[in-house]
């Protein structure tokens, strides 16, 4: 495996996420999903001054960030995830279906790859499970709590 190439891709992803966060932060948990013709990503980060995580898609509204600039960075991140997925396959490895990229503010990171077939999965329920597994977030909605 070309670790140099992968290292550059991890670095690019980290830089893009950091550029999307408009305040000091401690830790980021990014979910990325890639399949042929499809990609999806979101993240939560823990601000330095608060205990509650911030959902990436709330950033433009919470911080009056340009939606156009934020969308541009989000698409850039999706492109980087797709490039990482393609690179893994080009090196003869089984393609992962999703990953969790955990980054702290010192630059240390960890990546959990998952190979579960998600073709029949409910995206909403899948996100609830991920949020609980990685962030211990319990949904406010009663039906969603019952699902967990």
TrEMBL record:
This is Antitoxin YezG family protein. It comes from Thermoactinomyces daqus. It holds the Pfam family YezG-like. InterPro entries: YezG-like (IPR006728), YezG-like_sf (IPR036170). It comes from the Bacteria.
């Amino acid at each position: 495996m070309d670790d140099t190439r992968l290292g550059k891709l991890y670095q690019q992803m980290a830089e893009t996420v950091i550029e999307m966060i408009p305040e000091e932060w401690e830790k980021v948990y990014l979910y990325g999903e890639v399949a042929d013709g499809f990609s999806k990503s979101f993240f939560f980060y823990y601000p330095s001054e608060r205990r509650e995580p911030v959902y990436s898609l709330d950033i433009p509204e919470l911080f009056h960030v340009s939606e156009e600039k934020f969308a541009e960075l989000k698409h850039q991140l999706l492109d980087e995830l797709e490039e990482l997925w393609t690179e893994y396959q080009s090196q003869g490895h089984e393609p992962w279906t999703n990953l969790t990229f955990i980054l702290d503010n010192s630059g240390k990171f960890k990546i959990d790859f998952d190979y579960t077939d998600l073709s029949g999965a409910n995206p909403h329920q899948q996100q609830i499970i991920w949020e609980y597994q990685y962030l211990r977030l319990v949904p406010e909605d009663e039906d969603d709590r019952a699902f967990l």
